[in-house]
């Protein structure tokens, strides 16, 4: 039986994830406590009723977690000469089930990255042993639970269960995106990841259609504008700074040299995106104005967080945004892999 949630996060943001899990567990009336170490890249929330807590905290609702798993076993002092035997023994102490996939992982941290080679090679050795013992399907089956084998050290292994319907579809919760040669800046990766992470497949098809119109506030040099254009939108890019010339040559971009916090469209738009370096509460208030006044139906924006009390500021800004919008919204937020000291928010009018 699972005794804890195991969640990956950005190294350095363990206190924020621990605070988020603790507050939401208390709200769900599930007792437990967060355990972590700064810069480890993960948080464990120990609870006698971890499955109930997992049900109460769907992955899509979590902001600072890259992945959510149920911990099955925590194995210390594993003999490097034979790691497979104790793993199989630990699984025998859990309810029998068939896993669809095996993921062998390590923390995305300075301390965890040296374990990458071990994780890759060990997966090749463990996979046939699991199949022989009846724990792993003969062929990958994405519909069944995943078995995560996590190396925290050469002799410290965590076994965890992942639900493909309630978690990230990528190992470590990290989508492997490549920087396109034509992208004006690396910030394009943030919006690409946001569209993959915060919208479902059907939503991307429905909400991002050729011929839609959008605005990019604080656009220069044009990374987010470039992503919208690649998705078929006509974009009004607002910034006093210059855009890359090939964006202007596309015929889909109008560049207005204006203040992104003061500009407003003459007619309602489908989309507004914003990645401006401003105080997060000021951004939240301005984004709320856009939704409240009906200037756009869908929005993606970043909130740059302070150095301290980042969970408190996140909660406050999202509450402020929702309250000042004065209309029913669907809101999702996540600290993305390509984010740094910020979170990315997607908001859409209900029924939009």
Overview of the structural elements:
- The chain is an alpha/beta fold and 352 residues long.
- It folds into two domains: 4-173, THUMP fold; 187-349, Vaccinia Virus protein VP39 (Rossmann fold).
- It is 30% helix and 24% strand.
- The chain contains ten helices and 14 strands.
- The chain has helices spanning 14-27, 50-56, 84-92, 116-132, 187-198, 201-207, 223-230, 245-248, 280-292, 310-325, and strands spanning 4-8, 33-36, 42-46, 67-75, 101-105, 146-153, 156-162, 213-217, 234-238, 253-256, 269-274, 296-304, 329-334, 342-349.
- The strands form two sheets. A seven-stranded mixed sheet has the order 2-3-1-4-7-6-5.
- α4 (116-132) links the parallel β5 (101-105) and β6 (146-153).
- α5 packs across α7 and α9 runs parallel beside α10 (310-325).
- The longest helix is centred in the middle third of the chain and has 17 residues, at 116-132.
- The protein is elongated and about 65 Å long.
- The mean pLDDT is 95.
- GO terms for molecular function: S-adenosylmethionine-dependent methyltransferase activity.
- Its main location: cytoplasm.
- S-adenosyl-L-methionine binds at residues 187, 220-223, 239, 259, 275.
- It is found in: Cytoplasm.
- InterPro entries: RlmM_FDX (IPR040739), RlmM_THUMP-like (IPR048646), RNA_MeTrfase_FtsJ_dom (IPR002877), rRNA_MeTrfase_M (IPR011224), SAM-dependent_MTases_sf (IPR029063).
């Amino acid at each position: 039986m699972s005794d804890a949630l195991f969640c990956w996060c950005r190294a350095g943001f363990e206190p924020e994830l621990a605070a988020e899990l603790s507050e939401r567990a208390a709200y769900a009336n599930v007792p437990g406590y967060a355990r972590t170490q700064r810069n480890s890249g993960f948080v464990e929330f120990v609870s006698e009723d971890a499955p109930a807590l997992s049900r109460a905290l769907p992955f899509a609702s979590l902001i600072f977690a890259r992945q959510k798993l149920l911990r099955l076993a925590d194995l210390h002092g594993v003999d490097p000469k034979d790691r497979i035997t104790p793993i199989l023994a630990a699984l025998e102490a859990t309810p029998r089930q068939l896993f669809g996939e095996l993921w062998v992982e390590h923390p995305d941290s300075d301390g965890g990255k040296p374990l990458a080679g071990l994780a890759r090679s060990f997966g090749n050795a463990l996979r046939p042993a699991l199949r022989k013992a009846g724990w792993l399907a003969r062929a990958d089956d994405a519909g069944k639970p995943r078995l995560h084998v996590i190396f925290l050290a050469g002799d410290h292994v965590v076994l965890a269960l992942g639900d493909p319907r309630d978690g990230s579809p990528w190992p470590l919760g990290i989508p492997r995106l490549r920087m396109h040669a034509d992208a004006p800046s690396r910030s394009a990766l943030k919006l690409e990841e946001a569209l993959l992470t915060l919208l479902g497949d059907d939503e991307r098809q429905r909400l991002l259609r050729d011929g839609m119109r959008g605005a990019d506030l604080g656009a220069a040099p044009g990374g987010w504008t470039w992503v919208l254009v690649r998705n078929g939108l006509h974009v009004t890019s607002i910034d006093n700074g210059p855009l890359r010339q090939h964006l202007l040559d596309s015929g889909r971009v109008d560049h207005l040299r204006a203040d992104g916090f003061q500009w407003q469209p003459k007619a309602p738009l489908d989309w507004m995106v914003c990645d401006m370096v401003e105080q997060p509460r000021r951004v939240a208030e301005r984004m709320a104005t856009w939704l409240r006044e009906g200037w756009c139906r869908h929005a993606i924006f970043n909130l740059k967080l302070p150095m301290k009390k980042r969970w408190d500021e996140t909660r406050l800004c999202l509450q402020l945004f929702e309250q000042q919008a004065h209309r029913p919204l669907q809101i999702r937020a996540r600290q993305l892999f390509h984010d740094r000291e910020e979170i990315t928010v997607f908001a859409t009018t209900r029924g939009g």
